[in-house]
Amino acid sequence: MSAPAQPLPQASRFRSTVDYYLTSMRTHAQTDFQYRAATYMYLIGMVAEPVIYLVVWSTIARSQGGSVNGFTAGEFAAYYIVWTLVRNMNIVFTPYGWEWRIKDGHFSGLLLRPQHPIHYDLATMAGGKVVWVLLYLPIAFALTLIFKPTFDVSALEVVVFLVAIWGAYLIRSMFLWLLGMVTFWTTRASAIFETYIMAELLLSGRLVPLQLMPGWAQTIAAFLPFKWTFFFPIEALVGDLSTASLLGGLGMQLFWTTVGAGLVWVCWRASAKHYTAVGN
Amino acid sequence: MRRSLVVAWLFTRIGVMNELQYRANFFVALFQSVLTLGVGLVVLSLVFSHTQELKGWNHEELLCVMGIQIAMGGLMRATIQPNMLRLIEEVQDGNLDYALTKPEDSQLLVSVREVRVWQLVDVASGAAVVAVGVSRLESSVGLTDALALVGLLALGAVMLYCIWLILATGAFWVIRMWFLTELFEGLYQTGRWPIGVYPGWLRYSMTYLVPIGFAITVPAEAVTSRLEWGTAVTAVVFAAALFAFTRWFWRFGLRRYAGASA
């Protein structure tokens, strides 16, 4: 009979968590870099979405005498080029991935680890970001040459942007994790995921800058987490937000991250009990 | 030729019967179809709340483009995509052996083994959108236009099949092909708008490299009285050339296959 493992002292527990994050990030970044051709192909598929929006809206701007609701073609270009950077950052472990890892029984392995499994997802996806953003930069450069965006950026905006893209990552991680946990009950939850993604598409600034949406839609968006994962980080860099709105926005991101983390914490205890691996 | 058709029909029937067991999937597909359609309509009305026309296409005409894009997407996800994804998987794990050892044309076999019949819901909803769009058009659609539409759609489906097979054949060289669905779905979204709105470099890539222009915009031109004979002839010639190239490329790739299972 073996003695139960002693819990680690608080200080080294923190250190080992940091170490866990750094190691997982590094491993994942190396894997993604190893298969960079595949990653590039994935990026090209992803870039199609903002390029389509950009072409459509800048065509409209030009046909309307230069701008739509105050947005010029150059400003649309800036919005959608930064959009892609933000998108790179806010791609997180998807609910479809949950479906797969529960069906295949992969989740069992994660449950055996001493940490909460969310740390694994947060760390590995964050590691991938480094490579993705690096690979995206040449594409961003090409898009800049082609679509000629108008940029007017201050130092504070850059700083807020660099924090806000991680805020977007955390908010989206929490809420999609929450959605992913639905698969503990049913492995056919795609209808729920799709509804969420549709709401996000329309109310986050992913489809169009929120200023172009009808007033009531903007009001709804103000009460939901979506806009803090797309619209706010993009606007922080390309828009003309006041210092108060920039810092207030970061505050809202902190608020939604906390709400999301709280919900994950509450739901996790109830959900994990339902876990049965479907596969072998 | 006749034997090929019989084999294809047999596999299709098995595929359909297999899928019919999972009836709940019908409702999932229906729900997704309604969502896609809803978002599409919202986007169109958003665009037209800010403008009257997009590069010469009005609201009703773009409804036709959207309907064709949805219907063609449904056909692709029901028949082409699942076969190609299975092919890639089997090249990786060596199970392609089982298809290659059968006494039938290998390209035919790998192309007809899967039918995701519930995805055809999108074909129905897309067709309905086209019908609504056409009924609102100012110009009338004659019999010739309708025939041209059907013919061009068939050519478009052949071209999409060819591009999928060319990309999937890449699995003989590249092991990791997980990105293929994302890549193709991303590019396919460009078809939601007439190819003429895109800048030259993108327009040409989306016509000759990935023939989405031929598969969606050209049929849409047929119903909106824009089609020129030259375009239709180019579509026929291009489809034939692409099919011939695909066949050659498949055989070329197949020579690289060594079976990975042993």
What's the topology here?
The complex is a heterodimer of chains A (280) and B (262).
Chain A: H1 10-34, H2 36-63, E1 67-68, E2 71-72, H3 73-90, H4 95-103, H5 107-111, H6 117-147, H7 155-180, H8 190-203, H9 215-222, H10 231-238, H11 243-272
Helix pairs in contact in A: 1-6, 2-3, 3-6, 3-10, 4-7, 7-10, 7-11
Chain B: H1 2-20, H2 24-48, H3 59-93, H4 97-100, H5 106-112, H6 120-136, H7 143-169, H8 180-188, H9 200-209, H10 212-223, H11 229-254
Helix pairs in contact in B: 2-3, 2-6, 3-6, 3-7, 3-10, 7-10, 7-11
Provide an overview of this structure.
- The complex is a heterodimer of chains A (280) and B (262).
- With 280 residues, chain A is mainly alpha-helical.
- Chain A has one domain (12-272).
- Chain A is 72% helix and 1% strand.
- Chain A contains 11 helices and 2 strands.
- Chain A has a two-stranded antiparallel sheet.
- In chain A, a hairpin with a 2-residue loop joins strand 1 (67-68) and strand 2 (71-72).
- The two termini of chain A are 30 Å apart.
- With 262 residues, chain B is an all-alpha fold.
- Chain B has one domain (2-254).
- Chain B has helices at 2-20, 24-48, 59-93, 97-100, 106-112, 120-136, 143-169, 180-188, 200-209, 212-223, 229-254.
- In chain B, helix 2 (24-48) packs parallel to helix 6 (120-136), helix 3 (59-93) packs antiparallel against helix 6 (120-136) and helix 7 runs parallel beside helix 11 (229-254).
- Chain B is globular and about 55 Å long.
- The model of chain B has no long low-confidence stretch (mean pLDDT 91).
- The interface between A and B is large, with 36 and 38 residues.
